[in-house]
Amino acid sequence: MAQAMVHRWTGLAAGLFGAAGVALAAAASHAGGEALLRPASTICLAHAPALLALALAGERIRLSTVAALGMIIGTLLFAGDLVARHFLGSGLFPMAAPTGGMTLIASWLVLAIGSMLTSRR
Predict the structure, then answer these.
(1) pLDDT of 81-98, one tens digit each?
(2) Which of left, alpha, beta for 62 (phi over 0: left; psi -120 to 50: alpha)?
(3) HSE of 7, CA atoms in CB hemisphere, 13 A
(4) Percent of the chain with pLDDT over 90
(5) How far is the C-alpha of 65 from the C-alpha of 5, rounded, in Å?
(6) Where is the signal peptide (predicted)?
(7) How far apart are CA 94 and CA 74, in angstroms?
(8) Do 64 and 108 meet the contact criterion of CB atoms below 8 Å apart?
(9) Is 70 exceeded by the pLDDT of residue 121?
C-alpha cells in the first residue's frame, strides 16, 4: 500500500513538473528570462515524462522509488534555483542548481542500474 502511495505522488509530481515546464517556457518567451527560465523549463519538461513512466511502471523496475525521489528533488533544486534567481534575484542556497543537476544524474544512473536488476514479482 505504501508503494502505491509513492507512485501516486510521483504521478502528481510528473503533472506538476509538466505544467511548470510549459509555464516557464511561456514566461521565458513572453516575459524575458531566456537565460534562466528556458533551462528550468527544459529540466521540468524532460523529467515530467520520466516521472510519469516511473509512476506507471510501479514496482516492475527495481529502485524506481529511489530514482523517482532523486528526480523530484533534483528537479526542484535545479529548476527552483534558476526560477528563484530570475524572480527573486538570488538562488535558493549556494550550489543549489549544481546539487540538483548532480542529483538528477545520479537518479538516472540509479534507474539504469535498477533496470538491469531482476524485476520484482
Answers:
(1) 999 999 999 999 999 999
(2) beta
(3) 15
(4) 82
(5) 11
(6) 1-25
(7) 15
(8) no
(9) no
